[in-house]
Amino acid sequence: MAASCVAVLALVLLPVLLLGAWKRGRQAGAAPHVVVMVLGDVGRSPRMQYHALSLAQSGFSVTLLGFYNSKPRDELLQNDSIQIVKLTELQSLGAGPRVLQYGIKVVFQAVYLLWKLMCTDPAAYIFLQNPPGLPAIAVCWFVGCICGSKLVIDWHNYGYSIMGLVHGPRHPIVLLAKWYEKFFGRLSHLNLCVTNAMQEDLAENWHIRAVTVYDKPASFFKETPLNLQHELFMKLSRMYSPFQSCSEPLDPSMERSAFTERDCQSGMVKSLHGRPALLVSSTSWTEFEQLTLSGDNLPSLVCVITGKGPLREHYRHLISQKHFQHVQFCTPWLEAEDYPLLLGSADLGVCLHMSSSGLDLPMKVVDMFGCCLPVCAVNFKCLHELVRHGENGLVFKDAEELAAQLQMLFSKFPDPAGKLNQFRKELRESEQLRWDESWQQTVLPLSKGGCSTIFHLIPSSPSKPPVPTPNSTSVTSDVTTT
């Protein structure tokens, strides 16, 4: 029996080893090539899309592997140096024990990813997003050993900590996943991470040296001009009642939403006096309703809940049972180009992101800051690396504290001298510094066909920039785990 298993394994591995040797030979004289892999939806993985674009701009040809559930950025689709390879996701078997289903899925994905990677052009580097890293880290490392590719892991979070939310932190599967992630993570050649807190944790508990590269919002995340706000509001008003005007204008040449009004003859747009405040959020607003009813000088709220998570219908049902007079809810399905317009039109963002590890940052807040949108965010370990309490937003620990913050921010809305506008002013003034590429570039030394080159990652900065010093952001070749 053992001899038979060894023979089958040899028959499987021999073609792989031969193909790897052939790819090593091709790589020596080939154009520099990099594989960027995300075992998730490419369209909802902005950071990996940015990596692919940055690599292409640095002279590499790029193969981007991932699930194709959402449309990626047009820059990727139009870039001749980037090829997107669609991965197929194995659906749930729906029968048998959950552990067995999970095991079968992991084995299938391992064989499938191995085949996909071996079929791509020879790559000098494999960039991998983690999580999900099971079984991708081991497969990418194995392919790198065979084909001579170097593995770069971009740590967004820990996969085992996400599994722990479902199974509990001491479940055998979670403990096995943690061992796997730590063992194979140490075999990478270079590591990136999203926060300094994660960088410290990787160094202290995993013995992995990583470089912090903060997320950066895409260029289309910015404040929305008033005329585009009106177009978006009118578009949404045709489907969602909170965006509809409460009264028709007396002048038939005027076009009105709940927030804006346009003179169709002159094209001039203005904000309505006494308009409601627009929030992008998901939470309970009972206390704000009570404060408004008690006579506090607060505006009505239109709360837009975005996203399409598995609990979306559950919360829509809960919302339908509320009968607020001054708080309206809207759960629109937004087109990709409308989401940044909505953020750029809103008055406040509320983020309820709670990290499973406490070491990653919410990308939604990064995008909000790109739109100069002040944020109230629930606090956790490393949030201070992004949200500076009292400067560009507020952090809260519970519903009562959030309610008090909303009361303070929306008192006498829209007061030009109010705290809400002060936060927006701070974001506007620091915008150019925050995303200034002249000082914030992480330099990774990569090799292109035997010639030395550099790959520039442009991260975001959650705080005011330090005074640049020569080579202060350079990542030298000693930032490795081997």
Q: Describe it for me?
A:
- α9 crosses α12.
- The protein has two domains: 24-216 and 439-457, Glycogen Phosphorylase B (Rossmann fold, 3-Layer(aba) Sandwich), CATH 3.40.50; 226-434, Glycogen Phosphorylase B (Rossmann fold, 3-Layer(aba) Sandwich), CATH 3.40.50.
- It is globular.
- It is α/β, with parallel strands linked by helices.
- The model is unreliable at 432-443 and 449-482 (pLDDT under 50).
- The strands form four sheets. A seven-stranded parallel sheet has the order 3-2-1-4-5-6-7, with helices on both faces. A six-stranded parallel sheet has the order 13-12-11-14-15-16, with helices on both faces.
- Helices cover 38% and strands 18% of the residues.
What topology does this entry show?
Layout: H1 2-29, E1 33-41, H2 46-57, E2 61-67, H3 74-77, E3 82-87, H4 98-119, E4 125-130, H5 136-147, E5 150-155, H6 159-167, H7 172-185, E6 190-193, H8 196-206, E7 211-212, H9 226-237, E8 254-256, E9 260-263, E10 269-271, E11 277-280, H10 286-293, E12 301-304, H11 312-320, E13 327-330, H12 338-345, E14 348-351, H13 363-370, E15 375-378, E16 393-396, H14 399-410, H15 419-434, E17 442-448, E18 451-457
Parallel strand pairs: 1-2, 1-4, 2-3, 4-5, 5-6, 6-7, 11-12, 11-14, 12-13, 14-15, 15-16
Antiparallel strand pairs: 8-9, 9-10, 17-18
